[in-house]
Design brief:
This protein is α+β, with helices and mostly antiparallel strands. The chain has four domains: 6-121, CBS-domain (Roll), CATH 3.10.580; 135-246, CBS-domain, CATH 3.10.580.10; 249-387, PAS domain (Beta-Lactamase, 2-Layer Sandwich), CATH 3.30.450; 400-562, Alpha-Beta Plaits (2-Layer Sandwich), CATH 3.30.70. The protein contains 22 helices and 21 strands. A hairpin with a 5-residue loop joins strand 5 and strand 6 (111-116).
């Protein structure tokens, strides 16, 4: 079968929005158009993308969808490909980057379409991948389910935490419905995200038998316009989940098997000769290494380009030379496991050194093979650096206070709960500071909120400079801050609180009054200190710190107060 080009299967029905568009508007547009994503553009050039999966994650962070634009929450940069690219290349891009759709651009880098897993599977699977396989061979057997009475928020948390696209609804182990990203997007758009699962689930649940052919299962998905099926056994009980992502991911397993067959008992010259004519490898965007006794015997051009080395600089060298120092133990441990004949739990995430000494995140698969009549290890590597950067930035966004740069109140409750549980489990000390800026309302009334915001930002910097690495400062709300102090008794916490109080009192500000007159001002803070008691709840612990802070203000401000109970 001749493999076609992307322009023969792409859809031109793509929704584009500007980066200034609000997040809630994008969600409503996606819901209205029954679309799985919107592409964010400037001058018709893609700069980001928002998908249904992103919406699930953002919903789980309690982000205000009305107050946020697409710019800070979109995935960027966009992975796009030319309309002249081959379908096989698109499939490989999806596997490597764990994507379910790709943006298609023309020579001017303008958005002209989008291609999804559905189109890829239709054009690749019949002959190459799914004809002779059964559903049970690739289905996900770990069924994470909910019940009809559960709140929708539970589904959102599960999908966000597990990175899954659907959750079956079971009663007595039998599927009665399913909740997908599409149902949740519609619920958010309709402002009904607080409802129960039963009110928004898709029913009846789309099901398939585990012994059904994969080709027939994908045909059912296409006919029903869905991306997932609940897999049931002979008694109708749910035993797995099959998604189109599973079908696409299976491409990598086939890809590895092709490589193993190519490399088995062949000479280096013959391998290089075959590689030149193997479309799957030639167009591969994955790096390929072959190791023997820790030394690199083969490397493909893709990995050389990623790391910016020449073949002569890598061949014959110890693999550990090209890993960031703290990653060497992980790879060494897993290579040892392979040597014993056991399977390695992969993929691994390992950071490799670029020639400029930058650490790049790589997702790595290890497979034992025979190479030139000796045992060797085949390593395939995906560069996931941009994905990791995007994940880190998104996490920073949802846990950080925009103004001060320290952690926000939402993350405070999450982290305090973890520290309370840890203190109970290990019977460790834990203390908390609650800090309020003295007479801050008077300051804002005299100098305006612009000057007040500068004070808040400056105090955030002061807190960061006066706590340990394990301590965590948060903006609690308005002019209040809090600091969680793990492994800290109240005596030690008082020392930290006094250091912060003095540092704030010594800071000098130069605001202008609302009438435009310059001034020189210092500010003070009142600090309440509480140490966790083993019979405390998070609420009682926080309440004691709040009472201590109130006493500090009542006794004259600019002081630290600790309450035993």
């Amino acid at each position: 079968m001749k493999i076609g080009k992307i322009n023969s299967i792409m859809s031109t029905d793509v929704i584009t929005l500007g980066p200034e568009e609000s997040l809630i508007s994008a969600v409503k547009i996606m819901s209205d158009h029954n679309s799985s994503c919107v592409v964010v553009v400037e001058n018709n050039t893609p700069i980001g993308i928002l998908t249904e999966r992103d919406i699930i994650y953002l919903m789980d962070t309690r982000l205000d969808f009305n107050a946020v634009s697409l710019q800070p929450v979109m995935q960027s940069p966009v992975i796009a490909l030319s309309e002249e690219a081959e379908i096989l290349e698109a499939a490989n891009l999806m596997v490597i980057n764990e994507l379910r759709r790709l943006v298609v651009v023309n020579d001017a880098r303008h958005v002209i379409g989008i291609v999804t897993q559905t189109e890829i599977i239709k054009n690749l699977s019949i002959d190459s991948f799914v004809s002779f396989k059964k559903v049970e061979q690739i289905m996900n057997q770990r069924v994470v389910s909910v019940m009809q009475k559960d709140p929708l928020s539970k589904v959102i948390s599960i999908m966000s935490e597990k990175h899954i696209s659907c959750v079956p609804v079971l009663e007595d182990k039998k599927p009665v419905g399913i909740v997908t990203e599409r149902e949740i997007t519609r619920a958010i758009a309709g402002n009904i995200a607080s409802k129960s699962v039963q009110e928004i689930m898709k029913y009846p649940a789309p099901v398939t038998g585990k012994n059904i052919g994969l080709y027939d299962a994908t045909r059912v998905m296409d006919e029903q316009g869905i991306n997932s099926l609940v897999v049931v056994n002979g008694t109708g009980n749910a035993v797995g989940i099959l998604t189109k992502s599973d079908v696409i991911k299976n491409l990598r397993a086939d890809y590895i098997e092709i490589l193993k067959n190519m490399l088995r008992d062949k000479s280096r010259a013959l391998i290089e000769s075959e590689l030149k004519y193997r479309t799957l490898v030639e167009q591969s965007l994955e790096g390929i290494l072959i190791l023997q006794e820790g030394l690199i015997q083969f490397v493909n051009p893709t990995l050389l380009k990623i790391l910016n080395y020449t073949e002569g600089e890598i061949i014959g060298k110890d693999i550990m030379r090209f890993l960031c120092p703290n990653e060497r133990g992980l790879l060494s441990e897993n290579l040892t496991i392979l040597d014993t004949g056991q399977k390695v739990d992969t993929p691994l995430e390992i950071r490799m050194l670029h020639k400029n000494q930058e650490c790049l995140f790589m997702e790595v698969l290890l497979t034992q093979i025979h190479y030139e009549d000796r045992l060797a290890v085949l390593i395939t590597l995906r560069d996931i650096t941009e994905r990791k950067k995007t994940e880190a930035e998104l996490k920073r966004l949802v846990i950080t206070d925009d103004l001060t740069g320290i952690y926000n109140q939402r993350y405070f409750y999450t982290h305090l709960n973890k520290e309370v549980e840890r203190a109970k489990r290990h019977e460790r000390s834990l203390s908390l500071l609650l800090i309020d800026i003295d007479r801050f309302k008077d300051f804002n009334d005299k100098y305006g909120h612009w000057e007040g915001d500068y004070v808040l930002k400056r105090l955030g910097d002061i807190f960061l400079k006066n706590v340990r690495d394990i301590d965590m400062p948060f903006r609690y709300g308005g002019e209040e801050f809090t600091v969680i102090l793990p492994e800290t008794s109240f005596e030690e916490a008082i020392v930290v609180a006094e250091r912060i109080r003095k540092a704030v009192a010594q800071a000098v500000f130069y605001p202008f009054t609302l009438e435009g007159q310059p001034d020189v001002v210092s500010k003070t803070v009142s600090i309440g200190v509480a140490e966790f008691h083993m019979d405390d709840t998070m609420k009682s612990f926080l309440k004691r710190a709040d009472n201590a802070m109130y006493q500090a203000k009542k006794r004259g401000r600019n002081m630290v107060v600790h309450l035993l109970s």
